[in-house]
Design goal:
By secondary structure, the chain is of the alpha/beta class. The chain folds into 2 domains: 195 residues, 2-enoyl-CoA Hydratase, Chain A, domain 1, CATH 3.90.226.10; 46 residues, no CATH class. 46% of the residues lie in helices and 17% in strands. It has 10 helices and 10 strands. The strands form 2 sheets. The protein has a 6-stranded mixed β-sheet, sandwiched between helices. The chain has a 4-stranded mixed β-sheet with strand order 4-6-8-9. Strand 1 and strand 2 form a beta hairpin.
């Protein structure tokens, strides 16, 4: 897959996506968002991809937000359309994906950048990373799901404090408040994400997808309990369930087929 603003490659069933606009601190312009939408759709339908790592080029920024230069003259209607389109094609598409997405936060994750990281299922930050939603400094609010996903991750009090002050938090604080799962030295960032995806790769893929679906259902006003019951039932119909139980009885490692 050749893109103008992304590097992407699949190695051992992991899709590596690097947002590659280092001079603009990897800010999300329209073209980058459209390429991200494309690569996310590819990940969802490709049998070669079991999980995705998203990171930013260089060591300074993961993503420093939506591209401010692009929307400086927007009307209210255009702003609303920008947010709606982004939600549907990128941010919700990641969260609702059946493949596990990990954000490897290699520096500033601000505005739309933190929103991108928060739409991923797991976040790992490098020690020097700084995270925040500074939109109110521009006379805006977060528009790519930040008000909702930050509240889900850190609770109402911390979310309102971070959004209204626009203050960034360090990686260490982000870990303390549950905004990131792990903080590691920059050199270990991708390795830590690979370690998690390689563990998930050993598990039954349909069960992994069902688990993600049920957890996400708890966050979106859907009936998460009903989703869990339905997905639990569906698992019994899979070849992987039969393989998992046989392997347990035979005291061997299961060999899952994803069916
Ligand atoms: N959009 C467009 N360009 C950006 C950008 C952004 N979000 N963030 C950084 N850049 C560009 C700068 O304009 C600069 O380009 P030039 O060299 O051509 O001037 C280059 O990246 C380097 O940035 P700085 O010179 O500012 O670097 P710094 O080290 O002094 O500061 C920073 C780093 C604190 C991250 C600072 O760049 C910054 O505050 N960036 C903006 C962060 C922000 O407000 N993000 C929210 C965007 S709005 C949004 O995301 C809305 C939404 O929810 C949908």
């Amino acid at each position: 897959m050749a893109y103008q603003n992304l590097l992407s490659e699949v190695k051992e069933n992991i899709l590596y996506v690097t947002i590659n606009r280092e001079k603009a601190l990897n800010a999300l312009n329209k073209e980058t968002l459209s390429e991200l939408a494309d690569v996310i759709a590819y990940a969802e339908q490709s049998e070669d991809v079991s999980g995705v790592i998203i990171t930013g080029a260089g060591e300074k920024a993961f993503v420093a937000g939506a591209d401010i230069k692009e929307f400086s003259n927007y009307s209210g209607k255009q702003g609303e359309e920008l947010a709606r389109h982004g939600h549907e094609t990128v941010f919700n598409a990641i969260e609702n994906s059946s493949k596990l997405f990990i954000a490897a936060v290699n520096g500033f994750a601000l505005g739309g950048g933190l929103e991108l990281a928060m739409s991923c299922h797991i976040r790992i930050a490098a020690e020097h990373a700084k995270l925040g939603l500074p939109e109110v400094t521009l006379g805006l609010i977060p528009g790519y799901g930040g008000t909702q996903r930050l509240t889900q991750l850190v609770g109402k009090g911390k979310a309102i404090e971070m959004i209204t002050t626009a203050n960034m938090v360090t990686a260490a604080v982000a870990e303390q408040i549950g905004l990131v799962n792990y903080v590691v030295p920059q050199a270990e960032l991708i390795g830590k994400a690979e370690e998690i995806l390689n563990a998930v790769k050993q598990r039954a893929p349909l069960a992994v997808a069902a688990a993600i679906k049920a957890v996400i259902a708890s966050l979106n006003g859907d009936n998460g309990y009903a989703t869990e019951i339905e997905e639990f039932g569906k698992c019994f119909e899979t070849a992987d369930f039969k393989e998992g139980v046989s392997a347990f009885s035979e005291k061997r490692k299961p060999l899952f087929s994803g069916r």
